[in-house]
Fold this sequence. Notes:
- The protein has 343 residues and is an alpha/beta fold.
- The chain contains ten helices and eleven strands.
- It has one domain (7-199, 235-267, 304-319): NAD(P)-binding Rossmann-like Domain (Rossmann fold, 3-Layer(aba) Sandwich), CATH 3.40.50.720.
- It has helices spanning 16-27, 39-48, 92-112, 153-158, 160-182, 211-219, 239-251, 271-281, 308-312, 322-342, and strands at 7-11, 31-36, 54-58, 77-80, 119-123, 141-143, 187-192, 195-197, 236-238, 259-262, 303-305.
- A seven-stranded parallel β-sheet has the order 3-2-1-4-5-7-10, with helices on both faces. Strands 6-11 form a two-stranded parallel ribbon.
- Helix 1 (16-27) links the parallel strand 1 and strand 2.
Amino acid sequence: MPSSPMRVLLTGASGFLAEHILEQLLKEGYFVRATVRSEDKRRAVEKLHTGAMLEVVIVPDVSSPGVFANVVKSIDYVVHTASPFHLSATDMQAEMLDPAIKGTTEILEASAKEEQVKRVVLTSSMAAVIDTPSIPGPAGKVYSEKDWNSVSIEQALAHPAFAYHGSKTFAERAAFDFMERTKPKFDIVILDMPFIYGPMKNQQSLKSLNTSSAVVYSLISSTPSAGVPPTQVPLWVDVRDVARAHVLALKGGPEIGNKRFLIHADGTYTFGQVVDIVKKKFPHLAERLPTQSGAKVDGDGEYSSDNAKSKSELGLAYEYNLEHSITALVEDLLAMETSTTRE
Length: 343
């Protein structure tokens, strides 16, 4: 008699990255219990995965006390992706900090009460690593897993961008503090990513694009006179590689436990390179693209990062280059644009 599949709880399952993680988990043969915030999102996720070993449940607010108590029952592994990523918050505490920090501690507290949970994988961000208050900082800085953003709570409460940086930084620190304080039976693996590009599997509209996709759409909806904007973060990764990293984090042995990993493609990039790819692959968009001045854009290449640990310890092979990633994303954006026009 075949053994029953391992059971994974995936939070925030309707997100851009989470949908890719969900697809890969199902392909790997896991049973997935997925959380979403609303009935509409529940139906959308179920529609994409008809007949799969999938249960979708609604969790309206991940920061509510005890919200994961029942959801984590009979679960072997947890992948926690649910956390806001936008730069339009007006109440930094309620919209950014609380969902990230309390959402993380709530999922850890619930998991600690379940004997079966073996590992919790937390989706974080390079925003917790790159020291944004000091950018551009010393030229040639190479970030690693040892680095932490120095953003303060005062800065996080004062500005939406710092609120996002703070939300990721404080949530990661809260996770490590929880592990040290309570010493649960499970371990954690934290994955830190920069901008994530690639195809969209989840249900989005041009008005509700995730932040990384919205950046690319703004580039292909510009004008030649506008000029290419500064590349605030010269690091990127394909969403399919990030999803694979999450699966590998579940499968990895105890040696990767209670560690953080930087997940990003080799080298650095600029928005100018993105524009060049679009111009090459979609020549009919030429009149919608900003023109490069040829001058170095402020901030480009001032720092880089080392992803060696993700390769050597997680075993992650980065399969997609920038052209693959941007081409797939722009194809989806243009299809979405066409669909919007027809409505």
